[in-house]
Structure to design on (597 residues):
């Protein structure tokens, strides 16, 4: 025997070869970029390589004796999360082979670090989701067009065209267009032209009449852009439904027209009223002078007739004045003069001014109010409203009395409070319940059969109501037919500019 | 019916892997041990101390605490046979008493 043997009976050359072989395989394991773990058949760790130490971020010692867990994967790979204390979790691709280790059944577990790859994949997936969400949540219809057909579309397209995705994808570009555009051009020729331009020269923007799946046409703004995805040219079409906007614009135009007509009407009435007032002043003025007999004695018949001219003239003037007020209110041109005044004094003056009329009709007027009552408002307008209420009461009452009660919203004897009410009560003909709604309407007159129509313009209460509103208050009516009515004006003691 | 099977599943956050493993496992358990198992799910991100105590290295890891012996398996639990074998459980169809 030439060969030397050692005491274990191994041939030295064999031993050398074995050592070399062992070193080779050891270095494969040591230098392997993949984590290598050997566990026994139950999952207890027998060996780990340096790559595993690095990947798991743990020292060799912390593995020994640990239970890795029985790997269920045999021959296939699965992704696992690596728990690394003090470091973000890693992701590994695990491959398990049943093998033998020191003559026992064992598992060879090879784990490739795919943490980076996963992070990138995750980021890409998130990005894709983000853009998909942007695409899907857009209100506009966004469609992709390729090879002469619609290739993809978003949720917005389903809403805009009123159909399902399946009804869009694979269709011709003019499936959702009427045969012709409003100017008479054929939709398909025109669309073909525009798509070609988008392919060859650049983005196209235009208005287009589309139609929904049920054929309803609608106005749209369309933009066409060329996109190249994976070397294939696509056209991205963005279709914005502008029918609402168009309708709104039309409505706005109509409204503006109506407003202009209204303004012209008010202007016409205002100037007409002025033109009417001038000659009326002459009629009233000169009939007054004639009545005074300065230009010569009049006989009774002449006095009566000229008196009628004068009172008719006065009535017409009152009517014209009311019309001017209404016009001003409608044109929102009422100008207020706000100052402090004594309401009690104002009411006394009003009562006095009605004395002749009351006397003529044989009516009494009771006044119930404090001696002084300061308020801040537009005195002329307040007077106008109260005059109107009292004059109505006198006009519609043939016997009995009229009562005016002025009170603040605090119990008698106390000052302050916020609102003041002026109630005018009569014992006149009253108003039927069904007629109450007409009271504050413009030019509405309540006609009672068997009763003569009372003099008036039909504007008085309408005006009173409007003026009270402008002063921050209101007028209310309560009435019992054939027993009398009560009209109440409520106003803030101190006028405050309405907040707009 | 008393709880007979006590299991603990370690996962990492709510990754697709974690969710898939939990879904697979629940399906197997509900088919086999409905009403008699208790499964506790532990997220290693939220409870690293617990994971460390249980010497968790990777997830999804399932630990069978009861009945003995203690067993742990790692994977996606997509293979029912392997899961039951790995946990040292004799398959009982139609529920266990």
């Amino acid at each position: 025997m030439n060969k030397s043997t050692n005491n274990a009976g191994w041939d030295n050359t064999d031993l050398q070869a074995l050592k070399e072989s062992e070193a080779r395989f050891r270095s494969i394991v040591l230098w392997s970029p993949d984590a290598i773990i050997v566990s026994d058949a139950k999952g207890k760790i027998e060996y780990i390589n340096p790559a595993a130490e690095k990947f798991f971020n743990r020292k060799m010692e912390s593995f020994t004796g640990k239970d890795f867990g029985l790997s269920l994967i045999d021959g296939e790979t699965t992704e696992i999360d690596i728990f690394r204390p003090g470091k973000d979790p890693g992701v590994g691709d695990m491959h398990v082979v049943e093998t033998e280790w020191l003559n026992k059944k064992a598992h060879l577990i090879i784990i490739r670090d795919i943490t980076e790859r996963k992070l990138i994949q995750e980021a890409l997936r998130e990005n894709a989701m983000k853009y998909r969400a942007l695409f899907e949540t857009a209100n506009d219809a966004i469609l992709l067009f390729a090879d002469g057909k619609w290739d993809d579309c978003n949720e917005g397209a389903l809403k805009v065209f009123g159909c399902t995705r399946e009804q869009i994808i694979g269709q011709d570009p003019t499936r959702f267009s009427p045969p012709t555009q409003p100017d008479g051009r054929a939709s398909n020729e025109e669309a073909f032209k525009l798509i070609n331009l988008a392919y060859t020269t650049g983005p196209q923007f235009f208005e287009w009449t589309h139609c929904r799946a049920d054929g309803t046409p609608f106005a749209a703004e369309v933009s066409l852009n060329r996109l190249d995805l994976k070397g294939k040219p696509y056209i991205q079409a963005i279709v914005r439904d502008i029918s609402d906007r168009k309708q709104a614009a039309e409505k706005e135009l109509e409204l503006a027209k109506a407003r202009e007509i209204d303004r012209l009407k008010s202007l016409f009435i205002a100037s007409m009223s002025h033109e009417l007032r001038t000659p009326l002043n002459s009629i009233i003025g000169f009939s007054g002078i004639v009545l005074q007999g300065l230009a010569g004695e009049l006989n009774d018949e002449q006095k009566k007739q000229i008196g009628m001219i004068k009172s008719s003239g006065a009535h017409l003037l009152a009517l014209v004045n009311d019309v001017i007020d209404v016009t001003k209110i409608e044109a929102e041109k009422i100008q207020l003069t706000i100052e402090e005044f004594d309401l009690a004094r104002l009411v006394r003056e009003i009562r006095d001014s009605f004395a002749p009329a009351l006397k003529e009709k044989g009516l009494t007027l009771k006044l119930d109010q404090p001696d002084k009552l300061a308020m801040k408002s537009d005195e002329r307008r307040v007077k106008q409203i109260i005059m109107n209420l009292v004059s109505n009461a006198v006009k519609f009452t043939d016997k009995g009395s009229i009562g005016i009660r002025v009170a603040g919203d605090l119990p008698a004897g106390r000052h302050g409070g916020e609102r003041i009410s002026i109630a005018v009560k009569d014992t006149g003909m009253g108003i039927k319940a069904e007629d109450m709604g007409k009271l504050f309407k413009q030019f509405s007159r309540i006609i009672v059969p068997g009763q003569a129509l009372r003099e008036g313009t039909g504007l008085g209460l309408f005006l009173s109501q409007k003026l009270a509103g402008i002063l921050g208050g209101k007028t209310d009516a309560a009435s019992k037919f054939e027993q009398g009515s009560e009209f109440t004006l409520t106003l803030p003691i101190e006028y405050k500019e309405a907040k707009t | 019916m008393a709880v007979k099977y006590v299991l603990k599943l370690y996962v990492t956050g709510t990754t697709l892997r974690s969710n898939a493993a939990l879904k697979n496992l629940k399906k197997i358990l509900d088919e086999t041990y409905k009403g008699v198992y208790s499964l506790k799910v532990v997220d290693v991100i939220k409870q690293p101390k617990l994971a460390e105590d249980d010497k968790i290295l990777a997830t999804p890891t399932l630990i069978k605490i009861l009945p003995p012996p203690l067993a742990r398996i790692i994977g996606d639990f997509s293979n029912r046979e392997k899961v039951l074998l790995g946990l040292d459980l004799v398959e009982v169809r139609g529920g266990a008493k």
